[in-house]
Design a protein that fits this description.
Elements lengths: L17 H16 L11 H19 L4 H4 L1 E2 L2 E2 L9 H4 L7 H11 L3 E9 L3 E8 L5 H13 L7 E7 L1 E13 L5 H16 L8 H6 L4 H4 L21 E3 H9 L4 E11 L2 E3 L2 E3 L5 E6 L9 E5 L2 E3 L3 H13 L50 H29 L1 H4 L32 H11 L3 H14 L8 H4 L7 H17 L1 H6 L19 H9 L12 H4 L4 E3 L1 H8 L15 E3 L11 H10 L1 H4 L2 E3 H6 L6 E5 L6 E6 L4 E7 L2 H21 L4 E4 L23 E7 L8 H14 L5 E7 L1 H20 L2 H17 L1
Parallel strand pairs: 4-5, 6-11, 6-12, 14-16, 21-22
Antiparallel strand pairs: 1-2, 3-4, 6-8, 7-10, 8-9, 12-13, 15-17, 17-18, 18-19, 20-21
Helix pairs in contact: 1-2, 2-12, 7-10, 7-11, 15-17, 19-26, 22-25, 27-28
Length: about 800
């Protein structure tokens, strides 16, 4: 089978030119009404009108031929984010994945390190080895490294330890013959620089502008973690050197410009000379080269034709410092300086000029009109022609208005509430237009007509889906469609719009840091401390209402307790004796729907807590929470022997008394307010918690950084869902939620799914909050105790 290819339109065919349009118009006229027209010459009024129509169409076609960026450019210029597009630095980079990525990130963030090595340990743990710059406090550097790592820590991974390596210095002792082409101090500086590069090379990133000039593609610059100081490519050893052969050093020194031969070279330490190799003292050290501070400390001798050469030590140290540290870190750059946005011009596409203004004066429809002395019949004919042409022009004006509204069509902002645009043609567009209209408010009528034919939800979802597809993302409607108590058909489409907007706006964070774990340091103010993958799952499942990490707070905040139906009925005897199948069904009447649900304000909630019988006892039972959003679950009872109107709720096996009021209107209002509140509770208590088992591992003793062998910890993650809400009571939705989360997780992580009761979730959130507080305070003993309690809870749940 051949490859299916979507062919682009061939714009080389000039089928929209004035001549082609005019010829096609004449062909259609001859085909449809040849018996009516007299001829088709230039003097024919019909040909004149056809030519003006073609002229107007060519204007519209012309406005569709500008560069794409022009259609998304406002007076403030082209802003990609305003039309659902993202700049390269926002959408292309990703968080560190490999050890090399971690090294790039840390070296870029830590200004006081010479080198960084990231060692991947079993079970998803990392060990960081740092070589500090001269004079840097080791403990402060280790703390900075921990914080920088936790900024980008991936799910199921953690930092085992940070080791700031101690220097293990060796002195260079050598005799070399020079050719005299370079000063001895210059040669000596380069020799030391080469030797130090073999023992413990420092990292030296290249500036972004330099690599661009060398031919690197701009997209490659944004590959991997986004760095501020340039492109980091390790050219030396990828691991800390355990030993260095002297022959390797001699071979490198011989390549230094100006060196003719190496007569002798060894390393001196502790009174011993090493002619074969040197090795670091222990795992916590790094080989280094001792730099002579005075001429008396220098053990390197240069000869020229057999005569010794003097070395200016101060000049040598200055040159060596420039080689070793000069340009080590390019200045931070603005990523936006590495590329240019598409050149765009602001154009007022909606500016419309009537074609009637270009008609000859004899037609009486341009700005000059019909002379006052002409008969009434002539003026009426001109108005009739003007009205006929105005209808045709409306299509042209609406097309131009649509071009002008392109930024709104593709905007990711919730303020956009229309997808069909038009231009109201008033007297400033067509002279005498007000005389042709009969409606009192023609502009409002025009707006209402556009709204009537604007399939807003379908079209808005279509545009947002297109934007998401540019980044390989899509939103499935099934997780929301499976529950009719939350959304009507229109509300479902509205919810899909909100889901797509939420996903689109958070796409840079979700895309670049999809597998990043929760931050273990202090989270940014005003942001939830959750992994980006959890954020994406919550959006796709419709859990985008959360502003806190607690799934129980919405209930406990109002001093309510969730209990079972049996528990509530046994404690408060709320069941009604009335039978819905009784002979007198008029006693129980359905609740009338309202065009709009009442607003759920703080005062409305207080009214409910004081009026609804279960709430007065600070209780809410399962079936009321799950089914309370359905209007058909309520009945109003007006008994003849009393004046009160009772509210009954269908709990399945019985009707439960919820309260009473004086009037039908008041009872109806209370039911709709209760429905709105219960729907809010369902949505506010839906969500998920993510527990990374590796973070609960017991801390090893400081002297034995061991790796946990327990299978509970490595590559395991627990996903906790509530089981009390309406949607989570549905087994199909539970399966959908599990499939969704499993599909978003990295393949090497094994998820365990737990569906907790309200009391279990409350207990878990209490434990987790205390554990997080102990972690933030650095209370290690309490942290271990609570981590073990969380493990026990997860294993038993």
């Amino acid at each position: 089978m051949g490859t299916l290819v979507l062919k682009k339109r061939d714009f080389s065919r000039d089928d929209t030119s004035f001549e082609r349009l005019r010829a096609e118009g004449l062909r259609l006229v001859q085909e449809l009404c040849s018996e009516v027209w007299t001829d088709y010459n230039l003097h024919d009024p019909g040909v004149t009108m056809l030519e003006h129509l073609c002229y107007g169409i060519t204007d519209l076609v012309h406005r569709t031929g500008f560069p794409a960026a022009d259609y998304f450019t406002g007076e403030e210029g082209f802003v990609p984010e305003a039309v659902g597009m993202f700049r390269p630095e926002a959408i292309l980079p990703c968080g560190p994945v490999t050890g090399e990525d971690v090294e790039k990130h840390l070296f870029d963030r830590l200004d006081r390190v010479e080198n960084v090595w990231a060692e991947a340990l079993p079970a998803g743990l990392w060990r960081l080895l740092l070589r500090a710059a001269p004079g840097v406090d080791a403990s402060a550097l280790a703390a900075e490294a921990r914080e920088a790592y936790h900024e980008v820590r991936n799910l199921g991974e953690d930092l085992q330890e940070v080791v700031v390596l101690t220097e293990d210095p060796y002195a260079l002792e050598a005799e070399m013959e020079l050719d005299g082409s370079r000063p001895p101090s210059t040669v000596m500086a380069e020799v030391y620089h080469v030797c130090n590069g073999l023992l413990a090379p420092g990292l030296r990133p290249e500036s972004h502008l330099a690599v661009l000039e060398d031919g690197m593609e701009p997209a490659d610059i944004f590959h991997g973690p986004l760095t501020r100081h340039g492109i980091l490519s390790r050219r030396g050893r990828s691991q800390v050197a355990e030993r260095v052969a002297v022959t390797e050093v001699i071979g490198a020194v011989r390549k230094v410009k100006g060196v003719v031969s190496v007569k002798k070279l060894c390393f001196f330490k502790g009174g011993l000379r090493h002619f074969v190799c040197i090795q670091r003292a222990n795992q916590g050290s790094v080989l280094s080269l001792e730099i002579p501070e005075r001429a008396a400390d220098n053990r390197v001798t240069f000869y020229l034709d057999g005569k010794g050469l003097a070395v200016d030590i101060d000049q040598f140290k200055g040159l060596y410092s420039a080689l070793e540290y000069g340009g080590r870190r390019p200045a931070p750059h603005d990523p936006a300086s590495l590329y240019t946005l598409p050149a765009a011009t602001f154009r007022n596409f909606g500016d419309y000029t009537s074609v009637q203004d270009h008609f000859p004066n004899v037609y009486g429809i341009n700005a000059f009109g019909v002379p006052p002395t002409y008969p009434v019949e002539r003026k009426a004919a001109a108005r009739q022609l003007k009205g006929y042409l105005a209808l045709m022009e409306q299509f042209l004006a609406d097309g131009m208005a649509t071009l002008d509204a392109m930024p709104d069509l593709f905007s990711p902002e919730a303020r956009v509430r229309q997808t069909r645009f038009g231009a109201f043609l008033g007297p400033d567009h067509i002279s005498g237009m007000d005389e042709l209209r009969t409606k009192k408010d023609p502009e409002a009528s025009h707006t209402a007509l556009l709204r009537k034919h604007d399939d807003f939800h379908r079209r808005r979802n279509g545009f947002l889906s297109h934007l998401l597809a540019l980044y390989g993302e899509a939103v499935d409607a099934e997780p929301l469609r499976r529950d009719g108590s939350y959304f009507s058909d229109t509300a479902l489409e509205e919810s899909l719009i909100q889901v797509r907007i939420a996903l689109l706006k958070r796409l840079p964070e979700i895309s670049a840091h999809r597998f990043r774990g929760a931050c273990l340091t202090t989270p940014p103010q005003g942001h939830r401390n959750i992994p980006p993958f959890q954020m994406k799952c919550e959006i796709l499942l419709g859990f985008y209402h959360h502003k806190s990490d607690s799934l129980t707070r919405a209930v406990t905040r109002d001093s309510l307790q969730l209990v079972s139906d049996d528990d509530y009925l046994s404690r408060h005897g709320g069941a009604l004796a009335t039978d819905p199948e009784a002979e007198d069904p008029g006693q129980m009447v359905p609740v009338s729907p309202t065009p709009r649900d009442p607003r759920l304000t703080c005062g409305a909630v207080r009214e409910l807590l004081a009026s609804v019988e279960p709430f007065r006892h600070h209780l809410i039972f399962d079936s009321l929470l799950r089914g309370g959003g359905r209007l058909e679950s309520y009945r109003l009872i007006h008994l003849s022997e009393c004046d009160d109107v009772q509210i009954a709720f269908d709990a399945g096996d019985s009707w439960v008394y919820l309260g009473s009021t004086r009037t039908i209107w008041r009872a109806t209002h209370l039911v709709h307010l209760l429905r709105r509140y219960l729907m809010y509770l369902n949505m506010a208590t839906e969500g998920m918690h993510v527990v990374e088992h590796i973070l609960l591992r017991p801390r090893p003793p400081d002297t034995v950084p061991d790796i946990p062998a327990d299978e509970f910890y490595p590559h395991r993650i627990s996903i906790l869902f509530p089981d009390w809400s309406d949607r989570f009571a549905n087994p199909v939705f539970r399966e959908t939620a599990m499939e969704m989360v499993a599909g978003q997780l990295p393949a090497h992580l094994l998820p365990s799914f737990l569906f907790l009761s309200f009391d279990e979730m409350l207990h878990f959130e209490t434990l987790r909050t205390r554990w997080q507080e102990a972690l933030a305070r650095g209370d290690e003993s309490l942290q271990d105790e609570l981590a073990e309690a969380l493990r026990t809870f997860l294993e038993r749940a």
